[in-house]
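Project channel, design review

CF: Before we commit to the Legionella sainthelensi constructs, I'd like one complete example in the thread so the newer folks can see what an input/output pair looks like. Taking histidine kinase.
RD: sounds good, go ahead.
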Amino acid sequence: MENKKGEVDFKVIFESIPGLYLILDKNFTIIAASNNYLRSTMVTREQIIGKNIFKAFPDNPEDPHATGEINLRASLNRVLKNKTHDTMAIQKYDIRLPREKGGGYEERYWSPINLPVLDARNRVKYIIHRVEDVTEYIQLKKSRSEQLKIMEELRTRAGEMEIEIYQRAQEIQTVNKQLQEVNSHLALLDQMKTQFFANISHELRTPLMLILGPIDTLLRDKPLTPSQTKKLRLIKENALLLSKHVNDLLDIAKFDAAKLEISYYNIDFVRLIRKVLSLFEADIEAKKFQVSCDLPKELFIQIDGEKMERVILNLLSNSIKFNPIHGKIKLKLYKKNNYAEFCIEDNGPGIPSQFKEAIFERFFQMEESLYHSAGTGLGLAIVKDFVALHKGTINVQQSKLGGALFVIQIPLKAPENQLVHPKQPPLGMLEIPRYVKKQLKTRVLQTKGVKNANSPLILIVEDNLAMNEFLCDILSKDYRITCAQDGKEGLDKAIELLPHVIISDIMMPNMNGIEMVHAIRKHSSLISTPIMIVTAKADDDLRVRILQEGAQDYMTKPFSTQELKARIANLILVKNAEDELERFVYLASHDLKSPLPAIEHLVSWIEEDTENQLTPQSRKYLTFLRQRAYRMSNLLDGLLKYAQAGVIHSKIETINFPELVSNVAHKVDTANDFDIHCDRCSFPIKAEKTPLQEVLYELIDNSVKHHHLHKGHIKVGVVEKKRYYEFFVADDGPGIESAYQDRIFQLFQTLQPRDIFESCGVGLSIAKKIVETHGSNIWVESAKDQGAVFHFTWPKRTENLKGIEK
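CF: and here is what came back for histidine kinase:
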């Protein structure tokens, strides 16, 4: 079809096609319809063109189960999202009858399909909505006269289903084959992993031997200074610890490869327990433990003495390691049927019920591991493996003492056909794990280092005595040093001594490093003290959490001593500069502000004394002088406020956010002319109220001051994220061009002339300083003449930090 100009009239062609079609825009507005669609739905083109499809064809209000509108909307949204056609199941979508046909709705069934029309940028521009009226078909299926036809269709469908079932069976067979191949591959990988552990453990033993051998030779040489001897012994102790970890890995690898051999001897289990317990006598005395033993006089049992010795030592060292001073430990052994049952319990922190199985997994460490020295996570796994080798069992329960109760059952007799040596071998002298030794030493580390009393004082908080001494040695030449062995002692010394820098580990008993940082920041005298965390945990989430809690720097072990020294020097340099700057700003603000009241009074006296003699030009100059004095006063107030912004802190509390915003709005000058709306907050906000309130004040005050109208709209809200809150302050002001969006947070920066806006350019700088002091970020999203939205994050705070993820 052609129009008068000879061009093809696609509109007429579309409207004349035999199918039932609608054309929708991306907002679901009807822009075209075929004639057949109009006839089938009993509407005119004028009634629906330009209307939203759901307003033109609403659900039948008399049908409470109508789902046509919901299903159609979901299909159209899928087309917009996926940019591909969407075929819908048959829908019941009743059609409104014209008034001349009696009104009401007529039951209809449709088979719809929605197809996208994409533009040159691959964006959905239109949607073709095509339907087929299947009402008669559905009604025929419902009719009893068509039952035979339906039965025939069912028979046909049954045949098709048989074919489909066969095809599915073939697919399942193929999938099973693939699963078998994957399982074989996993078994191979597991075997390779076991072999790797075994190989790497053997390979590590050689260099360890080459470290320990020369060290023993050097230690026997006489011409060594005490300092050299001390350092060599430190190397030897850590090499022995590494050797223990290597042996643990090798035992695990042997167990996995079923190569871990067991040699049975007839051993007095009671003597074995007492022998291991004697290794800890000094440690038990140091921590003032109450140890009770309920043991028979003797109990001979057929076991591998060396492996069972490791089992008892690992369990006992765990109890001593995690138990508080004056703790209780109870050992019990008795015969139960054909088993020996050994129990060890304490009043330590215990094992949460959800971890009672997981603690025996390799490399597993609970979140509570932040409260103690780190290990490999293999100790209890080796215990379980060694017990399993003896065909025994181990489980953990809640102790009546309040801590954990480990129960081991070992068969009294070795399995049949197993060689049992009649003579008990001499028991080897096992070493107590080094981490227990070091933790239990009661040596007090005194303040030491350079003798110059003006040198910066550094507080080192580290529970590993060797690492503590190492840090002292490398820093004592340049600084005064004082040490603490856990977070609680570190907090007490920080409050007492006010060090220039604090260096701390994370995992410590009594109070971990994160708790200590949090507690330190509550003391006004320590708010700006630089804190560096030195830890073996290289974890991004933990690093972010540490910085949010108030630490300035973070180093992962092992580290370069030169880098550590450089970072500490930088922290001290920055701290000294900040202290000097704040002192200067504070004094300068007071000194510069003192003449301003005198200027104001002098201007008033001049105006009073020469009221009738002043020319208009002179009055203008006096007004100008008064305005400049007022602006100078505001500038100095802002400068003083900026200097103190980094030390604004308060207690953590649950905040009523709408009430907080309302209080802030009342404090902002001229804010009464603005509509300040606060979004409803459906979750509790736990944070420091005072600094948060100050940031919101500066942002709302900024929106009011820089609005191009005397009235405007400001919206304030908050969104909860996993680890922080994200607040926003949005206005409908003049907006900010992208080129200036970083500049506005700089001190004394304004986008408009100061003659137009009474602003000293400090407010946003104050907000930025407070936000960054709390380890968070602030930014703006805006465009010219489109308003501005200021965003800032704020850390979630809680008094109980024991649930911090590793």
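RD: helpful, thanks. The CA atoms of residues 657 and 681 lie 7 Å apart.
CF: The chain has 23 helices and 29 strands.
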